[in-house]
Amino acid sequence: MRAIVYPAKLSGSQVAPASKSSMQRACAAALLHQGQTNIFNPGHSNDDLAALEVIQNLGAIVTKHADHIHISSKGVMPIGSSMNCGESGLGIRMFTPIASLSQQQILIEGKGSLVKRPMHFFDEILPKLGVQIKSNNGYLPISIQGPLKTADITVDGSLSSQFLTGLLMAFAAAGAANQTIKVNQLKSKPYIDLTLAVLKHFGWEVNHINHEEFSFKDRSSVKDTIEYTVEGDWSGAAFLLVAGAIAGPITVKGLQMDSTQADKAVMQALSSANASIQIEQDTITIGAGLNGLQAFEFDATDCPDLFPPLVALASICKGVSVIKGVDRLSHKESDRGLTLQTEFAKLGVTILLEGDIMKIEGVDQIKANTVFSQHDHRIAMACGVAALRATGPIEITEAEAINKSYTDFFNHLQHLGAKVDIQ
Fold it and tell me: What is the CATH number of domain 3-17+233-422?
């Protein structure tokens, strides 16, 4: 699919998409909850759909209704010998320990960029928990056979917090009241806070000491039917908010200001860039400040998914913006540091990579050109946002990559007044 986005002035309001981080965790918790779950405001991105398919493969019964999804589960009881996580990094890292609760041998597969993402973590950790594992030299496909037996363990949290999310959920469901998980160099701590919040909603309480040692309490009594409402997605909404700052003002609705989502930190960057921001409950109105957008500095170590929208923002800020956390970008859907540098160079924007630091030199106008999504949803959206301030239309090839997380992205831009041709 090719998307051609034209320069535009935006106005109006848009409801933020559903959070896939919240949705996928809710699906996992619903599988582990032996009872009924109703999920309201469900997401429908490819990653969300992959999570629903996985929990069905692991024994849950999923029924879709007009305004919610009903999930009935008796726990992890696989109905087949395999599960496919699509291209979801969270999915593979979260559901592998959960699937290990079963004693059935399961082949875990993925597609696209996921087959190139390292899973050596499981080769090291799962055998310590009584799980037999055979991987493709640390990559997919992975064959596992449990059941997982909880034990005191120490894990490396420097690559991704998603591995820890899976272990926390599996340990909680297994009743690990006397065991602890210690973590070294944990990254993306807010995502772990989200995991703990979802577990608590479903009756499992996990305590921690400075995100370095996690302990488990016996599950509290819960109703047979649990209702969960998926939050608005700060990751996807970051692109709308940046679009508002550079081409608005617009209003974005449906975001929780007290959310534990890591990408809520986009508000700090937008404020530093001198964007005009008005907040009323779950409504944010955003545009450029009176003196225009200024270069900013921001640490994205704990929220690396913000790099693409913030590069689009920095591209039209006056001066050189500095974003820290480049080391977190190499194992995404693409090597995002290099991908952002390559694709934005086509738009006349110079990006310098200096170790863990990215420097973006702002320009007066983005250059019209053709860019390649690199099959990365956030690169496609970043280029789409930058196009709003270009000298002419920007064509994005392989633009269907957006379906991984934000299927309605181009439709939402159109709703706000942008002209987008889809071919």
Answer: 3.65.10.10
